[in-house]
Amino acid sequence: MNNETLVIWGCGGMGREVLALCQVLGREVVGFLDERPEMRGTVIDGVPVLGDITDLYKWKDSVGVICAGVGDPALKRKFVIKTQNHGFLLSGALVHPSVNLPRSTHLGVGCILCAGTVVSINVSVSNFVIVNTSVTLAHDVSISDYATVSPGVNISGNVTVEEGVFIGTGSAIREKVTIGAWSMIGGGSFVKEHVPSNVLYAGVPAVFKKGLSHHP
Ligand SMILES: CC(C)(COP(=O)(O)OP(=O)(O)OC[C@H]1O[C@@H](n2cnc3c(N)ncnc32)[C@H](O)[C@@H]1OP(=O)(O)O)[C@@H](O)C(=O)NCCC(=O)NCCS
User: What is the mean pLDDT of the chain?
Assistant: First the structure.
């Protein structure tokens, strides 16, 4: 893991949780990034909001940027593109010390694994994925870039979560299911069949609720 100081995109609930994770890991966070001009100069949980990425040039070669400080997958993607376009370094993976990672685990750039998550064998967590608190990832689960897995989700064996998926709190996913890119699963759902891309599925069992046209 790199040891550079860090900044976090987003200063809402997720960003603050990522700050707390960095503190547990002994990593120094010099500030939050937020596109809203009115947020610049405020202090949240003892850490200043520095402004937008363009306000950060003096630290360009010395900070690592955490883009997964927001739960919204599309917003994460926007922050990643912006960070890369301005030539900043991306932070590596951040894993809470309570999480045991088998040797077969693959972790991407800038992903976050929060406290209490259980990771089984041959699990892949790709770039900028958030795995929130107390999630279980069973054998051979694959989670693609920008996805967000909310607290208390149980993902069974051989499940594929495609790019940009959001899985709401407390949901359970049946084995061998694929959740299509940029789809959302409502909180408390049981997903028992493949979910297409760009849709909201929810309920027990989860069924189609609406199409989502706003994702890439
Ligand atoms: C998935 C979610 C974001 C959808 O929000 P939304 O886009 O505003 O969806 P809508 O309110 O338009 O709902 C569309 C339909 O899906 C249903 N629906 C939405 N979420 C549902 C859920 N979790 N379970 C069952 N049905 C759900 C709504 O009742 C509505 O049904 P209707 O058309 O029959 O009235 C939200 O409902 C949700 O579950 N959020 C969980 C967020 C979460 O886990 N956050 C973790 C933060 S750490």
Answer: 96
The confidence score (pLDDT) of residue 16 equals: 98
Q: Please choose from 134, 167, 200 the residue to mutate so as to test ligand 1's pocket, defined by most ligand atoms within 8 A of CB.
A: 200
Which domain, by its residues, includes 25? 5-90
Residues marked active site are found at: 139
Residues within 6 Å of ligand 1 by CB: 71, 132, 150-151, 168-169, 184, 186-189, 200, 202-203, 209-210
pLDDT of residue 59: 84
The Å distance, Cα 168 to ligand 1 centre, comes to 9
My answer on whether 85 and 99 are in the same domain is: no
Residues 6 or more apart in contact with residue 119 via CB below 8 angstroms: 99, 100, 101, 102, 105, 113, 125, 137
- Do 164 and 147 contact (CB within 8 A), yes or no? yes
Q: Is there a single domain that holds both residue 71 and residue 122? A: no
